[in-house]
Amino acid sequence: MAEAHQAVGFQFTVRPDGVDLKLSQEVIKNIYLSGVTAWKKKAIQFKNGVLTGVYPASPSSWLIVVIAMMSSLYTRIDPSLGMIDAIKENLPYKRCISLQTRAVLSAILFATGLWLFFIYLLRYTLKALLSYHGWIFESHGKMSASTKLWLSLVKMLSGRRPLLYSFQTALPRLPVPRVDDTIQRYLESVRPLLDSEQYNQMEMLASDFKETEAAQLQRYLILKSWWATNYVSDWWEEYIYLRSRSPIMVNSNFYIMDFLYVTPTHRQAARAGNVVHAMLQYRRKLERAEHAPLRALGTVPMCSTQMERMFNTTRIPGIETDIVQHLTDRKHLIVYHKGRFFKVWLYTGGRHLLPSELENQFQRILNDTSEPQPGEQRLAALTAGDRVPWARARIKYFSHGLNKVSLDAIESAAFFLTLDEEPQGYDPAKPDSLDVYAKSLLHGKCYDRWFDKSFTLISYPNGKMGINIEHSWADAPIIGHMWEYVLATDCFHLGYSEEGHCKGDVNRGLPSPTRLQWQISAECQDVIEMSYLSARRLADDVDFHGYLFSEFGKGLIKKCRTSPDAFIQLALQLAQFRDQGVFCLTYESSMTRMFRDGRTETVRSCTSEAVAFVRAMEDPGATKAQRLALFLRAAEKHQNMYRLAMTGSGIDRHLFCLYIVSKYLGVESPFLKKVLSEPWKLSTSQTPQQQLNLVDINKFPKYVGAGGGFGPVADDGYGVSYIIVGENLITFHISSKFSSPDTDSGRFGQHIRKAMIDIQALFKPENEKRAVENGKYAHLENAKKHM
To answer: Is residue 733 a contact partner of residue 546, using CB atoms and an 8 Å limit?
Structure first.
């Protein structure tokens, strides 16, 4: 045990003549190095905190202002307009201070005040500039003179080397839309989904809402927007995620895959060693706020608040609501393997364990042949089942003794690692390999991932990796940012030896990983088994299909002068209609991170324009020109809705918050109740990639990720995640439920493929359409280059 290893360095013997104390030089050295590292870390955090606090100015600018004011003491020019003299006359204890000293102190105080004034002036000027969103509504490739001027001013005020949180105080607040605008957009969004009678009824409900409850609810919401940094995010986290009492496995958690084509090493322990070390490097930069903030157009900053809880974070179950527990400076990792939990220290001598040292520690776990303790193997099933049984079991069985100590170790860990026993990954020779891989990441065996941790890293015997992410603390782009950094660092910076091991010498003197100890009663084991059976039913019901669309990609879509996202969303609408024969309420996730503490907004993709296009595609009498015109109109409509959502003028978050206010006030609103009860039968999301541009995928085309996915939102609907990979590949992750007789993920995937090809054919001659259907489009594109 680690504790025993530490103890041998500290021994004492009580003798008649006193105490004989012996200290190990190695232990003293480790203590010293740990202390030095801790103080160094605090110093860097303090320095970066100061740099962030005074941004967009710098501490050196304070010195410049002070020198300028001091120089005025020796000239006849008084830039302070008499304020320095006023300060000098009102200094405390002025009788004890010489006239010259008082003059210097007064100049320094005035200079400091002037410097702080200019900081706030620059910051609020930048906030006012960032509140302008006209640039996002301009046509792609075209930029007006006013936008160019605005962009130049933002660049000028943004400073040269911003840290991760430098822009936080300069980001504008999310605006509260006008009720009339939101209701108008809502009615427009449901018009294609309702018949005339249903639509007229909805119009009446909306009209009654505007005339009665809306004004009062809106006033409270505006008041909250003035007081809170974001009027949506805290309620969204609490009521959408934390108050849900259903299992978070499948229903909430999502996953991200490894490289699609590349496996850097086939040694499980080595790959885990490199990846964990890369994560520790990322965490160190995160703690020091040394990551560069993400910026649209390379200039417009995005909110970084969600990144704060990436590590050392756990969702704690409660009877009525869960909480998110975030700790700081956690130095250990919990590893699960073959039903056993191990604690692995991540530091030695004040530094991170090296990749080779981590590989050795993980190999020790893989070589361990000990058996699980009673109830230990399926313990994590508690986090996969319903929340209330888990909350009660936590209070009853894990609030004292060994169980509490071990549970605290899990919940306080930096993150959770599972060393899986079955190989996974994409294999072109196995059509269902992506399906099995996705289901493994999404739910596994229902007891081999700790679904409450901010994320569980999963390592497979063939060297493949993946992560399962708890959703309440952040959205997909946040964990995607970290995952891009880790994969690039793993392959292009750390690397492996010729034998596939981590580079570097192996330190075999490290203390071995320690087993967590449990005393799980038979009664508690029954609760665990019930949670497992509940989770197993949910997992077995997931119908998953992973699909690589390689006929064409972003490169060709852009040549059609349309947005790749709008193209795919319209293909999904066409596929949905062909699959179900009806249109449905469609959810697409959009980000609102241009605002402080922003998270997401909903884009309602099933528009009247999209419906008109789909009907034309299914109408044999419609010409190609008519279909193309309708497609372009629908694509433009979708893009405009996406832009509105990004700039705070969406529909659903506003209505959601109005509904929450109504519940607090005890006001019954038939309109809001109806809106919030509508099911999203098609839920979609695009997984972002190349946020960091650490890997040139044109130079290394095999080093691309497969994206990620999530479970179905509706029992009789589909969940579709897609990632646009480079110029020539789009991956789709499709989920539904076997229990629904109306859905089939594989069938829906085929509808998507056919819809993509049919839409692209609107821009191509008929002979090239047939070539695409036969998978020969790449050959035609190469031929065109040489024409």
So the answer is: yes
